[in-house]
Amino acid sequence: MSHRLQITLDDDQYEALSGESARTGASMAEIVRQVVEARFGLGSTQKRADRFRQALTEAAGTWSDRSDDGLGYQQRIRASLSARSVRSVRSPHPKPARRRAV
Questions:
Q1: What average pLDDT score do residues 7-12 get?
Q2: What is the C-alpha separation between 51 and 55, in angstroms, rounded?
Q3: Which of 1, 9, 63, 91 has minimal CB crowding within 10 Å?
Q4: Mean pLDDT of 73-93
Q5: What is the DSSP string of 52-77?
Q6: Dist CA 85 CA 79 (whole Å)
Q7: How wide is the angle at C-alpha 44 spanned by C-alphas 21 and 53, nearest 5°?
Q8: For range 2-6, the mean pLDDT
Q9: What pLDDT score does 27 carry?
Q10: How many CA atoms lie less than 13 Å away from 80 in the CB half-sphere?
């Protein structure tokens, strides 16, 4: 789960963050996340691996009640989206019927 956060920075802090973003190509949000991970020790390889393993364990078996596999599901969804795209390209905004003068 992720959370949104709004912070206030003084000019020096903002310039430092903005400069690092320009230098590295990372977004300011990504840099803030990296700093928080480093400050609180959340970014260690072992902790990340542990959290990843826990997520895999919790996700295991979530598709056990489905008859299709991941590839079949993906193909069905893409076919459905493709069919909708074709319909919307043909007539994005149907024209209203013209009324005849009587």
A1: 96
A2: 6
A3: 1
A4: 75
A5: HHHHHHHHTTTTTT-SS-HHHHHHHH
A6: 10
A7: 115
A8: 90
A9: 95
A10: 6
- Do 62 and 51 contact (CB within 8 A), yes or no? no
pLDDT digits (tens, 9 = 90+) for 30-80: 999 989 988 887 767 777 788 889 999 998 888 788 887 888 888 988 988
Q: What is the DSSP string of 8-56?
A: ---HHHHHHHHHHHHHH---HHHHHHHHHHHHHTTT-HHHHHHHHHHHH
* C-alpha span between 64 and 57 (Å, rounded): 14
Q: Give me the helix-helix angle, 11-24 and 28-40, nearest 10°.
A: 100
Radius of gyration in angstroms for the set of CA atoms belonging to the chain, rounded to a whole number: 25
Q: DSSP label at 61?
A: T
Placement of tokens 């919790």 in the chain: 58
What type of residue sits at position 86? V
Q: Encoding tokens for residue 89?
A: 């390209």
Alpha carbons within 13 A on the beta-carbon side of 82? 6
